Structures are given as structure tokens and as C-alpha cells.
Amino acid sequence: MALPAGSRALRPLLLADDVLAYRYRLVRPVDVPPERSGPAVVWLATDEVLARPVAVKLISAAGRRGAAASDSFLAAAARAGTVAHPVLARVYDAALEERPAERAGQPAGEIDVAYVISEWVDGRTLAEVVAADGPWEPAEACGLVTEIADALCVAHDAGIPHGRIHPHNVLLARGGRVKLTDLAVSAALPQHAVPALRATDPTPTGADVRDITAVLYALLTARWPASATPQPSCGIRPAPSGKDGPARGKLTSPRQIRAGIPRSLDSVIVRALDPVAAQTPPALTTPAALCDALERAVLPSVAGRNGLTGSTRIVPRPGTRPAARTAGPPVPPPPARPAPPAARPAARPVGAAPLPPRAAAAAAGTPRAFLATPPAPLRVPAAPPRTSTPRSPAPNPTVPPELLRWLPLVLSVVLLVVVGSMAYSTGKRIGTVSTSPDSVAASRTPVGGPAAGNRGPAGMALRLTSVPVQDFDPPPGDGREQPGAVSNAHDEDRSTVWMTDAYDSENYGGVKQGVGLVVDLGQAQALSRVELDVTAPGTSVELRGADVAGMDPSAFRTLARGRSGAGPLTLSTSSAAPARYYLIWITGLPKVGPRFSTGISEMRFFAR
Questions:
Q1: Residue 56 bridge partners (DSSP)
Q2: DSSP-assigned letter for residue 590
Q3: What's the pLDDT tens digit per position in 132-170?
Q4: Helix, strand or coil for residue 289?
């Protein structure tokens, strides 16, 4: 357990190919920098049940101190396992197990070992990235830190601070996605308790904000602000500090280390790392407040330097930003500006097809929320002005007495003719059945579509706009596959698309079997076929059905298979049994650019 050679302390005897809990086979120990050494040992292991790599963190539970440490260690893992976010490395399992022990290299019976099984992140640590690539550009660094802050918003809302954010717990996974490991688990170990700096130190959640700001500081300067945070630098060179500050020294602002950092960004970092010396209080003590400060103050200066116009925002990857933030002070509205002149649209090639309404609006920069144009107000013509000239009275025509005597009879005959004609026409329409294709299709088209739980008549296209549809990315996936764009696949608008993530090969890099969408019809419904508008030809798709939904694709029985071409992909299910849940299971991806991905712009279900 990171003990010096020849130590007389009792520690577990762990070897490659050892198996924990009858499923986690140890592969190799993971090197830990000396400044992070402590009671825990980290191994790369293989989950033999789900065939995926996992990280195993172990500590000894021997003795009174070991038992107390293992209790807090396992309790923190149980809390962290309740939080799910794409940026946070998932905690899968935690337990206490008896293992062989050694003392000074000799067998010494058995002891209890506490271990936590979590997601294995294949990538580079922040310390390795900074050492290899040097300082980042402000916009890129702010984007990465904003993603981490959004993940902390979710954890803090659940009452779980991280407590141990440093350059070795922030990793860039393959594909460019940022991951934050060790949520609450590492901070639960007594040897990793963070010492106090001064009486004005922040709360645990405020300390997380301070430490992710230190990560931003390191990305911008390739230096670690050791005077502002007690977290280890993990090999990143410390930033210079003055001597007139507290015990750790005075904070040096990023602009003093690297030229070109926007002044507004420098101010935000100082507010978060050194609230006492900040010139613009209040201090930034919540992840939401930090994100708002970056979006409100940092990016306008970046956009202005790059010659951009309009308001610019830090936009994380889809699905990583909570719907709304509840923490932090309210953000004042931006000052009103005169509307800029309309930009001249880019010329389109001669003969090019016109853009759909939403695509044309998106190309012109119009937000989707304002695509619908409100009707123009009804204009009532103004009354003519009154004049002082009196009107002449209208002439009073006289009706001959003979006409007045025959008028009732004439009106009665006309009324009978009109009523008879209307009755004849109505009866003819009721007694005639139209056999034109358009009439038949119209008779089968639902007015509002069946809601979830209603059966549709045979041959009817089920309307899916009001039916629950969810993304499906079972283990070893992370459980999320662009959830924020799922509605694009069933909104009856072909200009919007649900896209998969980008992968390294057609079979998802050999990591997973597939991804897809699950449609809940509310009750069992037999289908005759399913039509899919797939964005890329060469996409392999299976249609599966089940009466009870689960997170294992094998719980769904396979009903049809197909491979997309130039037009819509049709999956026929005429002989399949009814099912409530239908899975659109994408098993093969076509190559789109340098990587592999696909998308669904619309799907249509037809009842049998």
C-alpha cells in the first residue's frame, strides 16, 4: 500500500490475475506519483461479467484505524454511485473482502480489504496534457472547465462535494471528452484530508470551485497556483508567488505569467482563487456562479479579439449542461443594443435545392425558438372623417301590390328546392365509398395520433410525437447517447437529426455492441413495418421488441434487420408478436469523415 520497502506493516498481498468478488480480474497496478502516495492502491482490472476494463482502488481495513478508514471509504463510494453525469467517472461497485496478507515480504495470514470499482478512463491526465502541449487558448480552457463545473453542479445538488480535484483526477479521454475521477472517494481517506489555509477558507463546495479554477489557471499558464490551493500539483511546475501574502505566498495573477490572457478572465480567476484580494466581490463560491462569470465576462473579450459579433457563450458538448442552474447570484440582463443591419445571405450554387424552413433559419442565425413568425395584427380601416354637410335621405321605393301578394308563395318554392338539393347531395356522399389511393390514405391517417397506451387501427401510421422515446447505451457504455437530441428523431421534422457519438470503427471500437433508441408505446402493439430516415448509407440496424424494458439488449427479441441505402430503411415485422417496447438497435456504423457515426432524422411505426 505504497509503503517503504521492508516495512513491518501488515498489507494485502495482491498479484496480477487475482480475482475480486468472483468477477474483477486484476491486470496491472497503476503508477501513482509520489505526492499522491497514501493508503490506497489503484489497479487496472477486467470485469469478466460485462467484458470491460475497470479501475480498482483498494485500502487495507486491518486494525482500528483501517476499519474506520474503510467505513468512510465505502460510504463515500456509495454516495458517489448515486450521481450520473457524462463528465463524472461512474462508480460501479464497492465491497469489503478478505484477502491474503504479507508483512515485510512474507505471508502473514489474511486481512480485510475495502475496494471500489469505478469506470476506467483511457486517456491522459491534465498534468500530462500540459507537459506535452503547453498552455491552452482561453476559449478552449474555459470550455473544458465549464464542463467540469456543470458536472459539479449535479454532484453538489445531490449534496456530494468532490474534495480532491487536482491535475491527476482530470483526464482527457480518447475522443476529446473530459472526465473527472474520484468523486468524494479519494477525499474520504484520512491521509488525503485537505489542510486549512486560513480562516477564510471556503466550504467544501466552495473548495471545489477554487480547485477547478486552479485547473483553469494551469491550463492557461502551465503553472500550478500552489499559493491558492492545497491540492497537489502532480508534476506541474508551481506558479511564482510573492512573500507578503499568507503562509503559502501571494497569488500571482495569470496575466503576470502569460501575456494575452483577457483582463476579464484574469479578474474571474483572481476572484475565485483569492477572494480577499479580489477587486470585484462577491467571491465565486459555486460552480454555477463561476460558469456565469465566465460566460458573462470572459468570452465577449475573446470574441472581440477574434473579430466576432454578437453575444458568445461557452457551449459544452450536448447533454452535459443541466437544464437550469439554481445556485449563484442572478445574472443581470445584458444592456440593450441597436439591432445590427441584416447580413447579406451567402450565395447558394445555381440549381441547388432550397433549404427547409428550419435549416434556412439556422443558416441565417435565427434561434429555433423564434422560427415561427406570429401573424400580423388585423388592420381595421379607419372611419372616414365626418363632415358638416348633411346626407340626403335615401329614396323609399314603392313595391307593387301584386308582387307583395305572390311573394310568400315564391319564397316557399325556392326554400323547398334548396332543401331537397342539399338532402340529395348529402345522401349521395354518405352512400358512396371513395377508392382513390389518396382517400384511403386519408382515412387511415390519425387526426391526433394514438397517445401512449392506445392501440392504433391496422395499417395506421402511429404518431410518435407524444410517445416516450429514450436513448439506449447499455453497459459497457456510459448510459447516455446524445439524450438531448432524441426528440429530433420523432418530431415529424426531417431537418432535425438525432446523431450518435463518433467512434473509431464500424463496431464501436470493439468496446460495445451498439446504441439506439427505445420507443414505449404504452401497451403491446403489433407492427407491420418500421420506416427510418437514416442520414448515412451503410448503417446496420436491428428492430427489437420486448414486453418489459431493460438495460440489456438481449432482453429485446430481434424482429427484423436491415442496412440503410439511399432512401428510407424499411424493417418489415408482419409476422412478429406484439410488443410494448421497441428498440431501434444500431449495430454497425458507416464512416463519416475521419470517424464513424450515423443519425436518424425521422422514424415511422405502422400498426398491423
A1: 43, 117
A2: -
A3: 999 999 988 999 999 999 999 999 999 999 999 999 999
A4: helix
